């Protein structure tokens, strides 16, 4: 299974008190959904993935996992899925596409994964509002610039910021990702947790290793 640091971080940090229904938007290879199925043994996990090759790989990974009876994936756009589903979710996660107006790859699948023409922040927010239970949480990971844009959009919705993590690669680097959660409760401001991934280019930090130790064998 292909693993990205973004997916592993989101899968390790995303949480809700007692989720029974979990949704992974843009499931990719299935990493995040399977991590959450491992952590929450009574939860059912649904994934939505538009890109056909990623859907096929995620389906294969799910079938080879110990949690295959609790994980289902749909080959659909999130816009269509959210408009036609009457299911509500306690925990929703997304590692969404975030580039706009950038040069594209020659690989169409990679373009779907990285560029937001297929899933705009507006459509993502609208769908999450439709599917999230009142006490649920929506977790996502984005670069800081794109997360700021999402926060601005969220202010015009029912969702309010609940958790905020700043991720930097090494101690002297600026944060390159943010992981935030949003819910229907009153906004919780100024509670920022910083996570540094590496002590140096060849050594993971203790904080990162502790965070992912239950999921990655080599940690």
Briefly say what this structure is:
This protein is of the alpha/beta class and 219 residues long.
Which structural class is indicated by helix and strand composition? Answer: alpha/beta
Helix content: 25-40%
Arithmetic mean pLDDT: 89
Secondary structure: number of strands: 10
Gross morphology is globular
Number of helices: 8
Major sheet attributes? 8 strands, mixed
Q: Radius of gyration from the CA trace? A: 16 Å
Beta-strand content estimate:
25-35%
Summarize the helix and strand pattern as letters.
Answer: HEHEHEHEHHEHEEEEEH
- Strand order in the largest sheet: 3-2-1-4-5-7-6-8
Low-confidence stretches: 99-105, 109-116
Distance between the termini: 16 Å
Describe this structure as you would to a colleague.
This protein has 219 residues and is α/β, with parallel strands linked by helices. It has helices spanning 5-13, 31-39, 52-63, 78-84, 108-114, 121-131, 144-154, 206-212; strands at residues 21-25, 44-48, 71-74, 89-94, 132-142, 160-168, 177-183, 192-196, 198-200, 203-204. The strands form two sheets. An eight-stranded mixed beta sheet has the order 3-2-1-4-5-7-6-8. A two-stranded antiparallel ribbon has the order 9-10.
């Amino acid at each position: 299974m292909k693993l990205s640091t973004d997916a592993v971080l989101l899968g390790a940090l995303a949480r809700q008190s007692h989720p029974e229904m979990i949704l992974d938007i843009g499931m990719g290879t299935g990493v995040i959904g399977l991590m959450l199925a491992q952590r929450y043994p009574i939860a059912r996990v649904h994934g939505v993935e538009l890109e056909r090759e990623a859907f096929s790989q995620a389906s294969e990974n799910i079938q080879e996992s110990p949690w295959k009876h609790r994980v289902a994936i749909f080959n659909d756009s999130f816009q269509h899925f959210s408009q036609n589903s009457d299911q509500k979710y306690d925990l929703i996660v997304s590692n969404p596409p975030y580039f706009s107006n950038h040069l594209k790859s020659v690989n169409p699948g990679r373009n779907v994964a990285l560029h937001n023409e297929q899933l705009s922040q507006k459509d993502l927010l609208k769908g999450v509002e439709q599917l999230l239970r009142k006490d649920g949480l929506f977790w996502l990971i984005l670069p800081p610039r794109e997360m700021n844009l999402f926060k601005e959009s969220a202010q015009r919705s029912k969702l309010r910021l609940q958790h905020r993590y700043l991720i930097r690669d090494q101690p002297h680097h600026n944060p390159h990702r943010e992981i935030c959660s949003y819910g229907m409760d009153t906004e919780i401001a100024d509670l920022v947790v910083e996570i540094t991934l590496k002590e140096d280019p060849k050594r993971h930090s203790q904080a990162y290793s502790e965070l992912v130790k239950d999921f990655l064998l080599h940690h």
